[in-house]
Write a structure and sequence with these properties.
The complex is a heterodimer of chains A (175) and B (126). By secondary structure, chain A is mainly β. Helix content of chain A is 5%, strand content 39%. The model of chain A has no long low-confidence stretch (mean pLDDT 81). Chain B is mostly beta strands and 126 residues long. Chain B is built from one helix and eight strands; from the N terminus they run βββαβββββ. The chains are: A mainly beta (175), B mainly beta (126).
């Protein structure tokens, strides 16, 4: 059993853009087994409005867009997902971000001008973003996938963001 | 029990928005490559900007534009499960080719960085 992947690039450059696409699955493929999503940004995504205070300190993730896919043999969509920029709550409840650097104590700071506590270490996407896993699906004997990606973030911010959505379709070949 | 060795190869990324291609030779004692892992000295740049193509014995394992972040791991993952399983890829002529592409990203500023490719390999049984 061998698995291989098709990478489809969808370039988005206008607010609210709907990008229709088609993925051609090779004849060798017996089953489609999984889907993954990713994105590269050519323009900087704005920070947006200030978030409302909430005591749990949970931040809202930025929704980039929605993707839906369908095959010609089956009615309705077989895959629908929301693509978010990143998980902003990856360090939620991490006590380390509230601790100070080694050797820095309260006593050494003058009381009239106390410095805000500097985080000793903070969780980031690239430290806690793995391990990635694909969304498992199972579709037999399908040669063409039809899909649509709809931009949400550009429409929400009313800015023409430029970014590339990467769609990975995993399939299985029986030797 | 099969003998397992880990191999590491480095590529220096010196210019933004370019493709860096490098071929590596594996030892003759290695029969299969079973796992792959990407790390970097500047994880954030590789995470947000990187994509790559990987070939082992001229067989494509990951195609062009496959994001490197999908092959990275965080420190919250147990050491024994950090490698991405690729089954038993026969080493054949022992050649491993990596084409790493640095892609412009709106949120990061480029500076030269190094990527490291780790391979989990199975040795020939003597």
């Amino acid at each position: 059993m061998i698995q291989d992947v098709i990478v489809q690039k969808l370039h988005i450059s206008k607010m609210g853009e709907q990008h229709y696409f088609q993925v051609n699955v090779p004849r060798l493929a017996e089953k489609i087994v999984g889907v993954e999503l990713g994105a590269f940004f050519q323009s900087q995504i704005s920070r947006g409005e200030k978030e409302q205070y909430n005591f749990l300190k949970i931040k809202r993730n930025k929704l980039l867009g929605e993707i839906k896919m369908q095959t010609s043999n089956q009615p309705n969509f077989f895959y629908a997902a929301e693509l978010v920029q990143e998980d902003k709550n990856i360090g939620a409840d991490d006590f380390l971000k509230n601790t100070k650097r080694f050797g820095q104590s309260n006593r050494s700071q003058p009381q009239h001008n106390p410095l805000p506590p500097e985080p000793f270490w903070k969780s980031e996407q690239y430290t806690h973003g793995g391990r990635k896993e694909l969304d498992e699906i199972l579709i037999d004997e399908e040669r063409t996938i039809y899909g649509c990606y709809k931009d949400v973030i550009g429409k929400r911010d009313e800015i023409n963001y430029s970014y590339t959505v990467l769609l990975y379709v995993w399939y299985q070949i029986n030797e | 029990m099969k003998n397992i060795v880990k191999k590491r190869f480095d590529i220096s990324i010196t210019e933004p928005g370019k493709i860096f291609s490098k071929s590596f030779e594996l030892d003759k004692t290695i029969a299969f490559v079973t796992g792959i892992l990407f790390t970097s000295d500047k994880d954030d740049l590789m995470f947000y900007r990187g994509s790559q193509k990987v070939e082992i014995n001229k067989q494509e394992i990951f195609p062009e534009n496959y994001e490197t972040k999908l092959l990275m791991t965080g420190i919250n993952v147990a050491p024994n499960v950090r490698y991405y399983d690729i089954g038993d890829a026969p080493v054949g002529n022992g050649s491993v080719k990596v084409e790493y592409a640095d892609n412009a990203d709106g949120g990061t500023t480029f500076e030269p960085y190094r990527i490291s490719i780790y391979l989990r390999c199975e040795l020939n049984n003597h």
